[in-house]
Write a structure and sequence with these properties.
The protein has 225 residues and is α/β, with parallel strands linked by helices. The chain is built from six helices and nine strands. The strands form two sheets. It has a six-stranded mixed beta sheet with strand order 5-6-7-3-8-9, with helices on both faces.
Length: 225
């Protein structure tokens, strides 16, 4: 399949609030490639979450073109090809940690050893001892790390993470990001993170800036241009 995972041209999303149209995303044009490491930065309300939801196929654009040449049709994206990490961990309360991590694998009917994949994903983030715990027994930071473990377990083509370190202290957030990037090293998996944290943004290869719903792609990290 194509090295281009997503292509978007003049992408926009408008919502109605009290009968008044409000632009959640005004304009975004981009190509996302295999192995990309991208940070989306911008103020709250600038459209970061909206853009991630569109990229995942969770929402439909109001204007523009959005395609997934490297991943297939929109109804094929989740949970096999794209993994999402939301701002809140979104674990299912009745399920154990291991069962929460396994759920997308079972839903996607992926051809792999589910138990082995779950064990490896939990080990990546030092969560093995929590496998049999329920979400109510965990801290917010632990739940967010489990959400990241769930995202990597199925070896997706793309991970979209919305403020994945927002509930972690700086030291833990850095360690978690270290583990995630080390896990993805040498794979084709692309990673897109929205963040308010400059330290997180600087770890990515490319910065995308959202301001008033308009996306600009100013530079690669470390570039002098």
């Amino acid at each position: 399949m194509s090295d281009i995972l997503i292509v978007a041209e003049e992408l926009g999303r408008t919502y109605l609030q009290g009968g008044v149209p409000v632009a959640g995303l005004a304009s975004a044009s981009f190509q996302l490639l295999k192995k990309d490491r991208i940070a989306i930065v911008g103020k709250s309300g600038s459209g970061k979450s909206t853009l991630l939801h569109l990229m995942a196929g969770l929402d439909l654009p109001t204007t523009g073109r959005l395609e997934w040449p490297g991943m297939g049709a929109r109804d094929q994206l989740l949970p096999n090809r794209i993994a999402l990490v939301f701002q809140s961990p979104s674990l299912l309360a009745p399920l154990t940690v291991a069962e929460n991590v396994a759920l997308p694998l079972l839903m996607g009917q992926l051809k792999q050893d589910v138990n082995a994949a779950v064990s490896a994903a939990l080990a990546t983030f030092d969560l093995t001892d929590l496998a049999d715990k329920l979400p109510e027994e965990l801290s917010g930071g632990q739940m967010q790390r489990i959400a990241l473990a769930r995202a990597i377990a199925g070896k997706p083509s793309l991970i979209l993470a919305d403020e994945p370190t927002g509930q972690l202290d700086q030291r833990t957030g850095a360690a978690v990001l270290d583990a995630l990037l080390a896990h993805l090293e040498g794979t084709d998996t692309a990673l897109v993170i929205s963040t308010h944290d400059p330290a997180v943004a600087q770890r990515m290869d490319t910065l995308w800036q959202l301001e008033y719903g308009v996306l600009t792609i100013p530079r690669k990290n470390g570039s002098t241009s």
